[in-house]
Amino acid sequence: MTERLYIFKRFERFWHWAQAFLIITMLFTGFEIHGSYQLLGFQKAVGIHTFAAWALITLWVFAIFWHFTTGEWRQYIPTLKNVDVMFRYYVLGIFTGAPHPYRVTQLRKHNPLQRLSYLGIKLFINPLVWASGLGLLYYQAWRDAAPAGLTLDMVAGLHTVMAFAMLIFLIVHVYLTTTGHTPLAHIRAMITGYEEVED
Amino acid sequence: MSRKYVLAVLLAVAAQAVAANPDTSASTADHGKFKALQGPFKTGEDVTQACLKCHTEAARQVMATRHWTWDYTNPGTGQRLGKKTMLNSFCIADRSNEAFCNACHAGYGWKDDKFDFGSEKNVDCLSCHNTGQYAKLPGLAGHPAYRRMEYPPGSGKFVEPVDLPKVAQRIGKTSRTTCGACHFYGGGGDGVKHGDLDSSLKNPRRELDVHMGTDGKNFTCATCHKTESHRVAGSRVAPTAADPHGAILRGEKSGRNPATCQACHGDRPHPSSLGAGLLGALSKGDRLNAHGRTLACQTCHIPAFARGGVPTKMRWDWSTAGTLDANGKPFQKKDEHGHVIFDSKKGDFRLGENVQPDYVWFDGRVDYTLKTDRIDPAQVVRINRFHGEPGAPDARIWPVKRFTGKQPYDLEYLTLLIPHTAIPDDTSLWFNFDWPKALAAGTAAANQPFSGKFGFAETEMLWPITHMVAPKEQAVGCGECHSRNGRLQGVSGIYLPGRDRAPWLDRAGFGLALLALLGVLGHGALRILTRNRRKES
Question: Per-residue DSSP letters for B124-183?
């Protein structure tokens, strides 16, 4: 028997998909600005990248507000407990048909591995992408007052490192969405909000 | 629509057309009615003396300017510059050739080093203030033709004498044509020297020069090169490379150069739809304004020079000058457009039209290789050097014409040599095709030591590009610099997004991303392979 649990609320779903769209847009335009390929043209890529950046920043402001007012931030409190169990499942159990070691509830919607990686994004990748991106955007404001040794190529390098981190996260994240009890179960949950959980 | 209305519109348009030409109607004096200008005048000096009866200070003013002195001490470097002293890689220098070259001096009679720079009547008012039918012919030491004469000598062609009273009576403000009579033809012909100044600017279309276009704003040179007491603003010897200020207000006391772009447009010329604050960075205008800290306006707004159909010289190899044909006669070679690319007098040329500039950091300081400076002929000899520290507050990336060539130097003294070229006598290069004689005569006149042994050194000279500003639609696009092998490929000292990256970082980043992709694909494949086993369990 399965039970339907309402896991992802409407704002959360909107936040997730808008963020997904914006991040993919920014990776796509960002690597063109970086010079990795030429598709839209530099000017258009910069325009879209900049607009998407501000849209994402706005979205994040709302999301942070939402997390704190709803208490949902607790979903990201890290724990190392059972990380090894999760890890063993993805390396071994998933192939042998072992049951998923984690049981989702509304109060604990992320497994320990998810908690760690999402928190890493929120506390590490996002702030550094923001800071370095704004640094690039407002170079003219700080270039003549830059602390000694801080140059534009460092800021751009940091931004690029974070972009690669985001790209790698995206690849793994998209794949792991297929590891539910059916390949599309997690994606469906993020669309409808309901996760089917076995009793 | 009534016929009257159409007539009224036509009249209005005609009235506007008249108003648009200030020179014809704005003056309160009709010089044709002045007794002093009825003539007869024998020489240009006579006209000048007539002018000075009313314009009592004019000659003194002119004599204080470089149009007269051809002499300038660079305050930054202390170098003695000016056309009297400098060398270039075109006709090289005016010494011993004054009667020819100094047709472009704003004076009469400069044919050797005995010219009297203190004589007011030697000032040539007409050269800049004529409104037509006045030409100073090379070879006549700054004079026009006073009698019918064969010109050039031996050509079988004749020029009519100048009608001095008529020219004097129709005096006017300077125009594109009067300034251009010299500045368009520097280096020995139309468009030869600068690349951004040639006869196509006499009556340009807006596409060629957005300010001077006769179908647009119809500026004269002096609209930007604002002149006071005959001192003309702007200089290529000591240019203003960066002018990070707002527009100069009318009446504002300002020591700034009024000929810069910023003097009118200010330093934030691109409209920002969202203001200058944080949000402003969303707007293209603000982003472009931010580029003003790094780029000269000209860098984006002059996509190419020699755009008006007149080619400019990009290279001049003097080493082949003097080569004669099988019959021992001088000859010329022309390209498919009929432009001369070899002349026994001058050597080989390479011409360019619609030339994309080179770009260099430039803070306005230039120093020159002078006739006394030792050169290293193993290297390309730089006739001038543009200074500017990459990224410095006073430096900008500027478009330049990079002109190369070969010119004579002394094998023993290791100095660039001044040849005697243009005067019809028995030593000049163009009439005898004999380098040793020409160099002996030229260096003697220039008071330059000459060992008698000479070679040809590879030289290079930079010319700032600042005219032929295109309409904004034709400005250089972002991707033309923000790309690999773009316009700014050779400009160092900046991190240029789209051009620059850390290759190791790219390899590591894309490598890890690829590994992650392979990892998840392998993981997924294993899941598919083990599917049946799971079903059993």
Answer: -SHHHH--SS--PPTTSTT---SS-EESSTTSS-EEPPP-HHHHHHT-----HHHHHHHH
Using a CB-CB distance cutoff of 8 angstroms, which residues of chain A are in contact with residue B513?
164, 167-168, 171
Provide the residue count of chain B.
537
Query: In chain B, what percentage of residues exceed pLDDT 90?
Result: 83
Number of domains in chain B: 1
Give domain status of residue B269, yes or no. Answer: no
Mutate to test the interface with B, among A29, A33, A34 (most CBs of B within 10 A): A34
- Residue B253: predicted pLDDT: 87
Task: Give the pLDDT confidence of B485-511 residue by residue, as tens digits.
Answer: 999 999 999 999 999 999 999 999 999
Can you tell me the distance from the alpha carbon of A118 to that of A176, in angstroms, rounded to the nearest whole number? 13
Interface touch A42/B523, C-beta < 8 Å:
no
Residue in A with minimal Cα distance to B536: A97
Q: How confident is the model at residue B536 (pLDDT cuts 50, 70, 90)?
A: low
**Do residues B124 and B164 make contact, with C-beta atoms less than 8 angstroms apart?**
no
Residue B111 has pLDDT above 90, yes or no: yes
Instruction: Collect all residues with Cβ–Cβ distance below 8 Å to B400 and sequence separation of at least 6.
Output: B357, B358, B359, B360, B362, B386, B462, B463, B464, B465
Given an 8 Å threshold on Cβ–Cβ distance, is B500 in contact with A153?
yes
pLDDT band at A86 (very low <50, low <70, confident <90, very high): confident
A167: enclosing H helix or E strand: helix A152-176
B189-210 tens-digit pLDDT = 999 999 999 999 999 999 999 9
Query: Which residue among A50, A167, A178 sits closest to B513, beta carbon to beta carbon?
Result: A167
Q: Alpha-carbon dihedral of residues A31, A32, A37, A38, nearest 10 degrees?
A: 170
Cβ contact, residue pair A95, B282, below 8 Å? no
Say which of A42, A151, A160 has its CB closest to residue B498: A42
Test B512 with A164 for CB contact under 8 angstroms: yes
In this structure, are residues B31 and B37 in contact, taking their beta carbons and an 8 Å threshold? yes
- The verdict on residue B393 lying in a domain is yes
Mean pLDDT of B426-435: 96
Residue B390 lies in domain: 312-480
The 10s digit of each residue's pLDDT in B8-54 is 444 444 444 434 444 556 789 999 999 999 989 999 999 999 999 99
Residue in B482, B505, B523 nearest the CB of A157:
B505
Structural domain A2-198, CATH architecture: Up-down Bundle (1.20)
Residue B472 domain-assigned (yes or no): yes
Domain definitions of chain A by residue range: 2-198
Residue B497 burial (CB < 10 Å; 0-12/13-18/19+)?
Answer: buried
A2 pairs with which residues across the strands? A198
Burial class (CB in 10 A: 0-12, 13-18, 19+), B464: buried
pLDDT category of residue B177 using cuts at 50, 70 and 90 = very high
ipTM: 0.92
- Amino acid in the structure at residue A163: A
On whether residue B342 sits in a domain, the answer given is yes
Grouping H, G, I as helix, E, B as strand and the rest as coil, residue B52 is helix
How far is it, in rounded angstroms, from Cα B247 to Cα B266?
Answer: 4
Stretch 45-74 of chain A: residues touching chain B, C-beta under 8 Å: 46-47, 50-51, 54
